[in-house]
Amino acid sequence: MIQNLLSKNSSHVQKFSYQPLRNYLDMVYVGNISIGTPPQQFSVVFDTGSSDLWVPSIYCKSKACVTHRSFNPSHSSTFHDRGKSIKLEYGSGKMSGFLGQDTVRIGQLTSTGQAFGLSKEETGKAFEHAIFDGILGLAYPSIAIKGTTTVIDNLKKQDQISEPVFAFYLSSDKEEGSVVMFGGVDKKYYKGDLKWVPLTQTSYWQIALDRITCRGRVIGCPRGCQAIVDTGTSMLHGPSKAVAKIHSLINAKHFEKEYVVPCNARKALPDIVFTINNVDYPVPAQAYIRKNANNNRCYSTFEDIMDTLNQREIWILGDVFLRLYFTVYDEGQNRIGLAQAT
């Protein structure tokens, strides 16, 4: 629901909206949107690691489309075909299709004439088994499909939100309670003050990482490196050498494509500390080692990055990190705010 909050520094009414997210096994956080007139419902990942919105279309016969809700353009009186083919690639799969535009609703917020992708083909096991239909990208326009306006920029342009700001609170272990808020920040979701970090570039939500330490010893990012803050990634991804070093430190053993750690290590192992803009953000063992309820095994949440992303050392801080730290994404001032989540 939209709340009118008086912003501290002025008397204008802030336009602010909450969107609840469902936490699926601490692996992915999904929310509902609708597209078209009358509205067609979809569940999407609100993803800070990409910039485009897309959903399956009725023209898609891939396995991933057949098992998910699909958009029917002929059922919407406000749909326009933009006459352009698109291809999008993600860490976990690919989609190809075409570009359309229509009215998109996120809770009480409405984005009219919103460009979005309609898939005609989807590949990748992740999309087949996904609990979401599509993806709503929240990164910068520079990595969006050329000639389109992102959802956030459209909401700001159409005066649906007063600031191009959004924030995520991600719950642990339970399905309910997670939220993405648009247009402002609700203080009840974090403790202390937000610490602001400038972006190093405006494509992904990318920041400088000072170093990664354990018991005061540098174990990663020794000369400083880059990190992408990504709500659409479950784990903590880093360069393979650095991840191998962490795995030997925590005594993780390779087993069936994963790294297994004795479960009692969750209580015994020290924090791994990410230092960002001279502030320490500890990640305790209970966060970086996840317990699988099905087989009672415990796994490391550190994973190799595809080293092809670029030649510099880069880390991806996914949901493992974001459950611990409430994050504010401020596109107006090109910065991220971090504070301990409540």
TrEMBL record:
GO terms for biological process: proteolysis. Residues 29-339 form the Peptidase A1 domain. The active site is at D47, D230. Pfam families: Asp (PF00026). It comes from the Eukaryota. Disulfide bonds join C60-C65, C221-C225. It is found in: Secreted, Extracellular space. GO terms for molecular function: aspartic-type endopeptidase activity. InterPro entries: Aspartic_peptidase_A1, Aspartic_peptidase_AS, PEPTIDASE_A1, Peptidase_aspartic_dom_sf. Keywords: Aspartyl protease, Disulfide bond, Hydrolase, Protease. Its main location: secreted. Belongs to the peptidase A1 family. This is Pregnancy-associated glycoprotein 8. It comes from Sus scrofa.
